[in-house]
Amino acid sequence: MTWYKRREGPLIVTIVVALFLIFEWYFGKGALIPETTKASGEIQRFVAFILAFVIGVGALNVLRIHWHRIQRRKPGDYSWVYSSWLFILIILFVVTGAILGAIPYEYDPEAAAYVAHRTAEPSYVWMFDYVLSALDATMYSILAFFIASGAYRAFRARTAEAALLLIAGTLVMLGNAPIGGFMWTGFIDISTWIQRIPMMAGMRGILIGAGLGAIAMGIRILTGRERGYLGGGE
Amino acid sequence: MAVMVEGRIAQFVILVVLSIAVLSVFPVYAGVPTEPHNADAMWIEPSSQRIVSDFDTIGYRFTVTVNINLTFTCSGWQFKVLYDKTHLNATGCGYTLNATKSQFMENITTVARDPTFGSYDLTRDYVLHGESWLSGPMRNPGYGDLAWVEFEVLMVPPRGGGEAISSMLDISTSYDADTYALNDVGKHAISVYDSTYTLTWPVMVEGRIAQSVVLVVLCVAPLYFIERARRGKVPKIRKLAGLDAIEEAVGRATEMGRPVMASHGIAGFEDVSAPQTAAGFSVLGYVARLCAKYDTQLLVPCRYSALVPVAQEIVQQAYIAEGKPEAYKPDNVMFLSDEQFAYSIGYMGWMTREKAAANIMIGAYWAESLQLAETGFMTGAIQIAGTANYHQIPFFVVCTDYCLIGEEIFAAGAYLSKDPVLTGSLAGQDVGRLIAEILIILGTILVTAGITWLSDILVL
Description:
The structure holds 2 protein chains of 2 kinds. By secondary structure, chain A is mostly helical.
């Protein structure tokens, strides 16, 4: 295997960077060697650069896949229409954000020059506020219906655990819904108690366990044992 | 036998009580230090202080108090504190009792003055403050606080090499001219004492010392068990039904001729959820190998474009490992959107269109967890989900067939690999859990008893 395809390279990078950042967390920036402060800043800048770069990788991935779908369109299958729509929207966003946003448009008295709107370009902002954000909120609100259907299944008391879930869920709902407090104020106290005591205890148990698991996993990664994130195998 | 056990319990209880009693003695001596000076004297408290720098120490504020102890009747006092203006800036000064009177002059009718701030020379600024008797009886001999002065740190020493900045809060240079105490006829000789301060960097960041000790202990335990497993002492770990069911889920999808969906959550590799993403990738590798083995289509939705190449590499490696590199389709690992709900709707749409027979979700999930799990239920997929985000676990428990809770997802890589050495590291987690349990029980008892040394140590 050629040297750049070997697993040792990424492993060494992972271990060195991880140890560096762990050290910095406990001892502070540049604790023993002042130059490490600069190095730490550089690493974070690398991350920002890489993340900015891979947005392009993601966009290319999407475009390639949808381009193939448009090319392979079959009679009766209209999914290529959605792929085409995706292309149109990507082009529209790029044009409004990157091209229209870069045109000097508004006079800035302080700078004594015309300045570009950049991401504040009105049509770009309009699409973001009135299309993307609206769709995002719509998707989030759909969650209410999913909760209802999930709760319906969860509250079928077929086992002792499900019955317990049903009772606890009902009490918490009555405590949180206005009608519960109207019927009997004790529902609010019971609901509060369930959330503060047993639920909190369970939640903290899960948190502690997850924290320990994450540390153990970190050790396996640092010692090169866990290689799943590198593609698995040896 | 029973008598012996009872005896041991009694011994244990006595040992615990004695230990707590002995350890509780330590905080008793941790009182607030006072710095009395022999009369006649004026001094600054604390007489020396070490200000430990941190990331935000520039702008950090601290306060000193000027005190006095006299053997004569006092009709007034004044001090002028000089300080290095490159290190510090005086941001406030005032009497110690209230806005118009010092604690030393309590019950005496005095004239209040406003403190004065100014430049003394090229390197030093000053704070001048004082108080004068007006009428009635003067202050009898005694001691007390005069005024407080607040300073803001302007400069910290360079990091590394243990360098420190050290200087004085000086009232001796101005003694007699501007720093003095008055008796009933005029200035009276007193001794004056300066205060020194040192700005230095800590060996460790404050608040993270106990953390680091705990981390070292938690690291040593898995390493010990890994080494132990290497020598052949492999610990037994309990069955994880969710992970055992993965093969069954892929087998079902194979029989139905429908694809498997496997996602690694919506977190990236650059925040606290990164271990969950890594756990998701470990499971993805395993699922990909099974799919390659059984010639089943695998669909991998990605939220972060940065993770698309990683997921593609994992899936490709799995196909290569199974000897079927030609069966790998890069288009089946798709970036959907980095917007949470756009990703969610993309995932739901893909799952519905492809009629996935298995939906495996291991990683960090937030509000989209229920949407994905419910959609999986509607498409009739066998679902295996797991997350360490406790707020999403109830949704997965309710809507999926198998749910991995919290730490179980981190064990997935080791569990699925069947590697005895990796399995050993899981036993190390139990040591951490044992320590956590002991600390919780001991901490609860101590705090209930009003003893705080353990919590004080843990916040170091």
